[in-house]
Amino acid sequence: MGDPLPWLAAPADAPLLWSNGRPVSRAAFAAAACGLAQRLPEAGSTLNHCHTRAGFLLALVASALRRLPCRLAAPDDARPSRGTMQQPVCVLAEDARSADVPVPPIAPESDGASRPPAWAPDGPFAIVSTSGSTGQPRAHPKTWLTLSHAARQIAARLLPTQPARIVATVPMHHMYGLETSVILPLVTLHSVVESRPAFPQDVRTALESVDAPRVL
Q: Which of 42, 60, 141, 207 has the largest CB neighbor count within 10 A?
Protein backbone atom coordinates (compact mmCIF):
# COMPACT_ATOMS: atom_id res chain seq x y z
CA MET A 1 0.00 0.00 0.00
CA GLY A 2 2.99 2.34 0.27
CA ASP A 3 3.75 4.89 2.96
CA PRO A 4 0.49 6.44 4.21
CA LEU A 5 2.32 9.65 5.11
CA PRO A 6 4.82 10.22 2.30
CA TRP A 7 4.94 13.96 3.06
CA LEU A 8 6.58 13.04 6.36
CA ALA A 9 9.63 11.61 4.59
CA ALA A 10 11.59 14.12 6.65
CA PRO A 11 11.32 14.66 10.43
CA ALA A 12 7.89 15.93 11.42
CA ASP A 13 9.25 19.33 12.47
CA ALA A 14 11.06 19.83 9.14
CA PRO A 15 9.50 22.45 6.85
CA LEU A 16 7.33 21.47 3.92
CA LEU A 17 6.30 25.02 3.00
CA TRP A 18 7.59 28.54 3.53
CA SER A 19 4.97 31.26 3.92
CA ASN A 20 6.24 34.86 4.16
CA GLY A 21 9.62 33.52 5.20
CA ARG A 22 8.20 31.37 7.98
CA PRO A 23 8.28 27.55 7.89
CA VAL A 24 5.19 25.34 7.89
CA SER A 25 6.17 22.00 9.39
CA ARG A 26 5.25 18.63 7.94
CA ALA A 27 3.43 17.78 11.17
CA ALA A 28 1.26 20.90 10.90
CA PHE A 29 0.51 20.09 7.27
CA ALA A 30 -0.34 16.47 8.10
CA ALA A 31 -2.76 17.54 10.82
CA ALA A 32 -4.48 20.00 8.49
CA ALA A 33 -4.72 17.44 5.68
CA CYS A 34 -6.22 14.80 7.97
CA GLY A 35 -8.72 17.31 9.33
CA LEU A 36 -9.80 18.36 5.84
CA ALA A 37 -10.08 14.72 4.69
CA GLN A 38 -12.65 14.04 7.41
CA ARG A 39 -14.93 16.69 5.88
CA LEU A 40 -14.89 15.24 2.37
CA PRO A 41 -17.49 12.87 0.89
CA GLU A 42 -16.80 9.15 0.83
CA ALA A 43 -17.33 8.72 -2.92
CA GLY A 44 -16.94 10.59 -6.20
CA SER A 45 -14.01 12.93 -6.84
CA THR A 46 -12.80 16.39 -5.88
CA LEU A 47 -12.06 19.45 -7.98
CA ASN A 48 -9.02 21.39 -6.73
CA HIS A 49 -9.73 25.08 -7.28
CA CYS A 50 -7.26 26.43 -4.73
CA HIS A 51 -5.24 29.55 -5.54
CA THR A 52 -2.49 29.19 -2.96
CA ARG A 53 0.16 26.48 -2.95
CA ALA A 54 -0.67 25.54 0.64
CA GLY A 55 -4.36 25.19 -0.17
CA PHE A 56 -3.61 23.24 -3.33
CA LEU A 57 -1.38 20.82 -1.42
CA LEU A 58 -3.99 20.37 1.30
CA ALA A 59 -6.81 19.70 -1.16
CA LEU A 60 -4.72 17.21 -3.10
CA VAL A 61 -3.48 15.22 -0.11
CA ALA A 62 -6.81 15.32 1.75
CA SER A 63 -8.49 13.91 -1.35
CA ALA A 64 -5.91 11.11 -1.47
CA LEU A 65 -6.48 10.28 2.19
CA ARG A 66 -10.17 9.95 1.36
CA ARG A 67 -9.25 7.93 -1.76
CA LEU A 68 -10.95 10.43 -4.01
CA PRO A 69 -9.37 11.29 -7.39
CA CYS A 70 -8.48 14.99 -7.38
CA ARG A 71 -9.21 16.91 -10.58
CA LEU A 72 -6.96 19.91 -11.11
CA ALA A 73 -8.72 23.09 -12.22
CA ALA A 74 -6.99 26.17 -13.59
CA PRO A 75 -6.95 28.65 -10.67
CA ASP A 76 -7.93 31.59 -12.89
CA ASP A 77 -11.33 30.05 -13.64
CA ALA A 78 -14.01 32.09 -11.87
CA ARG A 79 -15.92 28.89 -11.12
CA PRO A 80 -14.60 25.55 -12.38
CA SER A 81 -16.93 23.69 -14.67
CA ARG A 82 -18.05 20.23 -13.64
CA GLY A 83 -18.61 19.51 -17.32
CA THR A 84 -19.96 16.06 -18.12
CA MET A 85 -18.36 14.30 -15.17
CA GLN A 86 -20.15 11.08 -14.35
CA GLN A 87 -19.30 10.97 -10.65
CA PRO A 88 -20.32 13.49 -7.98
CA VAL A 89 -17.69 16.22 -7.71
CA CYS A 90 -16.79 18.15 -4.55
CA VAL A 91 -15.20 21.55 -5.28
CA LEU A 92 -12.38 22.51 -2.91
CA ALA A 93 -11.26 26.14 -2.68
CA GLU A 94 -10.09 28.70 -0.15
CA ASP A 95 -13.02 30.96 -1.03
CA ALA A 96 -16.14 29.58 0.62
CA ARG A 97 -18.31 31.23 -2.05
CA SER A 98 -16.92 28.93 -4.77
CA ALA A 99 -16.36 25.81 -2.66
CA ASP A 100 -18.46 22.86 -1.59
CA VAL A 101 -15.86 22.35 1.15
CA PRO A 102 -13.66 25.38 2.00
CA VAL A 103 -9.95 24.72 2.47
CA PRO A 104 -8.75 26.43 5.68
CA PRO A 105 -5.30 27.90 6.38
CA ILE A 106 -2.75 25.60 8.00
CA ALA A 107 -2.43 26.20 11.74
CA PRO A 108 1.19 27.21 12.49
CA GLU A 109 1.47 24.94 15.51
CA SER A 110 0.38 21.33 15.66
CA ASP A 111 1.09 18.22 17.70
CA GLY A 112 0.82 16.14 14.57
CA ALA A 113 -1.91 13.83 13.34
CA SER A 114 -3.00 10.28 13.93
CA ARG A 115 -1.74 7.92 11.27
CA PRO A 116 -4.45 7.63 8.59
CA PRO A 117 -4.95 4.56 6.39
CA ALA A 118 -2.82 4.40 3.27
CA TRP A 119 -4.32 5.10 -0.12
CA ALA A 120 -3.79 2.71 -3.03
CA PRO A 121 -0.64 4.04 -4.76
CA ASP A 122 -1.68 2.57 -8.10
CA GLY A 123 -5.16 4.08 -8.04
CA PRO A 124 -6.18 7.48 -9.49
CA PHE A 125 -4.49 10.23 -7.49
CA ALA A 126 -4.73 13.35 -9.64
CA ILE A 127 -6.55 14.01 -12.90
CA VAL A 128 -4.72 16.56 -15.04
CA SER A 129 -6.02 18.05 -18.27
CA THR A 130 -4.44 19.29 -21.46
CA SER A 131 -4.76 23.01 -22.15
CA GLY A 132 -7.25 22.59 -24.97
CA SER A 133 -5.19 24.79 -27.29
CA THR A 134 -5.46 22.17 -30.03
CA GLY A 135 -9.03 21.08 -29.27
CA GLN A 136 -11.13 20.10 -26.28
CA PRO A 137 -9.13 19.57 -23.06
CA ARG A 138 -8.45 15.91 -22.39
CA ALA A 139 -8.30 14.42 -18.91
CA HIS A 140 -5.36 12.20 -17.96
CA PRO A 141 -5.51 10.27 -14.65
CA LYS A 142 -2.16 10.04 -12.84
CA THR A 143 -1.30 7.58 -10.08
CA TRP A 144 0.72 8.37 -6.97
CA LEU A 145 3.38 5.89 -8.12
CA THR A 146 3.81 7.67 -11.46
CA LEU A 147 3.94 11.18 -9.99
CA SER A 148 6.20 10.33 -7.06
CA HIS A 149 8.65 8.45 -9.29
CA ALA A 150 8.90 11.39 -11.69
CA ALA A 151 9.39 13.84 -8.81
CA ARG A 152 12.17 11.76 -7.29
CA GLN A 153 13.92 11.53 -10.65
CA ILE A 154 13.76 15.32 -11.04
CA ALA A 155 15.18 15.80 -7.54
CA ALA A 156 17.99 13.32 -8.11
CA ARG A 157 19.08 14.89 -11.40
CA LEU A 158 18.51 18.60 -10.85
CA LEU A 159 18.53 19.46 -7.14
CA PRO A 160 21.34 19.53 -4.56
CA THR A 161 21.70 16.63 -2.18
CA GLN A 162 21.09 18.82 0.87
CA PRO A 163 17.54 20.08 1.51
CA ALA A 164 16.81 23.12 -0.66
CA ARG A 165 14.05 25.74 -0.74
CA ILE A 166 12.21 25.75 -4.05
CA VAL A 167 10.75 28.90 -5.63
CA ALA A 168 8.41 27.96 -8.48
CA THR A 169 6.83 30.23 -11.09
CA VAL A 170 4.82 27.49 -12.82
CA PRO A 171 1.14 27.01 -11.82
CA MET A 172 0.44 24.05 -9.54
CA HIS A 173 -2.14 22.51 -11.88
CA HIS A 174 0.40 22.52 -14.72
CA MET A 175 2.06 19.09 -15.07
CA TYR A 176 5.61 20.40 -14.57
CA GLY A 177 4.51 22.63 -11.71
CA LEU A 178 2.70 19.69 -10.11
CA GLU A 179 5.78 17.47 -10.25
CA THR A 180 8.36 20.03 -9.13
CA SER A 181 6.54 22.21 -6.61
CA VAL A 182 3.86 19.91 -5.19
CA ILE A 183 4.81 16.24 -5.39
CA LEU A 184 8.58 16.74 -5.09
CA PRO A 185 8.52 18.34 -1.60
CA LEU A 186 6.10 15.65 -0.44
CA VAL A 187 8.52 12.82 -1.26
CA THR A 188 11.92 14.43 -0.59
CA LEU A 189 13.59 16.55 2.08
CA HIS A 190 13.19 19.69 -0.05
CA SER A 191 10.61 22.36 0.80
CA VAL A 192 8.77 24.91 -1.34
CA VAL A 193 8.02 28.62 -1.02
CA GLU A 194 4.27 29.17 -1.04
CA SER A 195 4.22 32.23 -3.32
CA ARG A 196 4.24 31.95 -7.12
CA PRO A 197 6.13 35.05 -8.33
CA ALA A 198 5.68 36.24 -11.91
CA PHE A 199 7.90 39.32 -12.27
CA PRO A 200 11.70 39.53 -11.77
CA GLN A 201 11.53 41.59 -8.58
CA ASP A 202 8.91 39.24 -7.13
CA VAL A 203 11.16 36.27 -7.94
CA ARG A 204 14.07 37.98 -6.20
CA THR A 205 11.92 38.76 -3.15
CA ALA A 206 10.76 35.14 -2.95
CA LEU A 207 14.33 33.85 -3.18
CA GLU A 208 15.53 36.29 -0.53
CA SER A 209 12.73 35.25 1.83
CA VAL A 210 14.46 31.94 2.56
CA ASP A 211 18.00 30.82 3.31
CA ALA A 212 20.29 28.99 0.89
CA PRO A 213 20.38 26.55 -0.76
CA ARG A 214 17.64 27.94 -2.99
CA VAL A 215 16.38 26.63 -6.33
CA LEU A 216 14.35 28.57 -8.88
A: 60
Q: Are 67 and 24 in contact (CB under 8 A)?
A: no
- H or E element that contains 145: helix 144-158
State the pTM of this model. Answer: 0.86
CB 141 within 8 A of CB 124: yes
Q: Please give the Cα distance from 143 to 121 (Å, whole number).
A: 6
Q: What single-letter DSSP state applies at residue 214?
A: E
Question: For residue 101, which of 129, 54, 63, 73 has the smallest C-alpha distance?
Answer: 63
* Residue among 18, 11, 23, 20 nearest 109 (CA): 23
Mean pLDDT of 82-94: 73
Cβ neighbours around 128 below 10 Å, total? 18
Question: What residues form DSSP beta bridges with 71?
Answer: 47, 127
Edge-to-edge strand list for the sheet holding 124-129: 101-102, 89-93, 45-48, 70-72, 124-129, 139-143
Query: Residues 37, 66: contact at Cβ < 8 Å?
Result: yes
Residue type, 183: I
β-pair partners for 166: 192, 215
Q: What does the DSSP assignment read for 154-192?
A: HHHHHS-SS--EE---S-TTSHHHHIIIIIHHHHSS-EE
| Nearest by Cα to 183 from 48, 49, 21, 56 | 56
